[in-house]
Design goal:
- Pfam families: Pro_dh.
- Keywords: Oxidoreductase.
- It comes from Salmonirosea aquatica.
- InterPro entries: FAD-linked_oxidoreductase-like (IPR029041), Proline_DH_dom (IPR002872), Proline_oxidase (IPR015659).
- The protein has 362 residues and is of the alpha/beta class.
- It has a single domain, classed as Alpha-Beta Barrel (TIM Barrel).
- α8 runs parallel beside α10 and α10 packs parallel to α11.
Length: 362
Amino acid sequence: MNRAGLVNVGTFFIKLALRLHLPIKKLLRNTIYEQFCGGESIRECETTIQHLASSGIGTILDYSIEGEDDEAVFEATTVELLRTIDRAASSNDIPFTVFKVSGLASNDLLEKVQRKESLSEDEQKAYDRVVERVERLCSQAHLRSVRIFFDAEESWIQDVIDTLAYTMMARYNGRRAIVFNTYQFYRHETLEAYKNAFLQAREEHYILGGKLVRGAYMEKERIRARENNYRSPIHTSKAATDRDFNAAIDFSIEHLDSLEICLGTHNEESCLYCANKMTKLGLKHNDPRVWFAQLLGMSDNISYNLAKQEFHVAKYVPYGPIDTVMPYLFRRAQENKSIAGQSSREFLLVKREMKRRKLGTV
């Protein structure tokens, strides 16, 4: 995972093999899929859900279907997402649910709406169905008292997603956050947008729900900006991203009377920064308004240590048929390679801990 060349070559050949219908699904299931996914269905995820719960870690079921362009698939995805909401309502082991608007709509349609281009009659009907699907999910989440994340996506469709998210927040959040929007702080305008969203929520008398992340589309964003000759929305340095992310933590922890957050991060320093901020302000570790989240298969050293200290922690557990989940898995591979040394560092931490246990040392 740390070797960019191997990731690129492996991704190319996996895509080719799937396109040629070569029998590689068993190999994928036993390697990258097993590392990052819970199973092909909610039922197959139950073992993972219970395993995480035994260590005080929640599960966020993530039906990872994206990039489709078929109305039947969009409807089937909506039905499956409703099942995740119902499963979450049945226990305390699933504190959040999540969906991507691009799993319910054509990317081309979302781009056209964001550009404010006129839609044909068929396109308008298609977009009306998108809004109706989003409404069904948020309405069901509100009815079952289940929190739901709008996942963040590429900048060229994010404005549409934001508009839908704020509409649903105003409708369903009230005195507690049911609907959460996701804020990507590797974009240079996000910190201001986050604060503006807070002001809007306070003016309209609802609690803002915010999932704070650094971001996952950096390479795509920069390439598209170059190709289309516009300023990249991405910060020019990691230090700037870290600065904005931690500034958002400060702002959030100081305004918990009017917002709730989930920190979706694999950055140890930011997790420690938030934990120390909570302690400084006299907040309990298990304050229900503050959560931490990491991806299944990544940063277990963060997740399990936070849970041991009684902070609220959850793992994203993607699931779905292997071939349809591959876009998600390719993104995880790219993310691992772009985080310098993360995979090797985690592997070394596991080896060190195994050695410590074998020797019986403290």
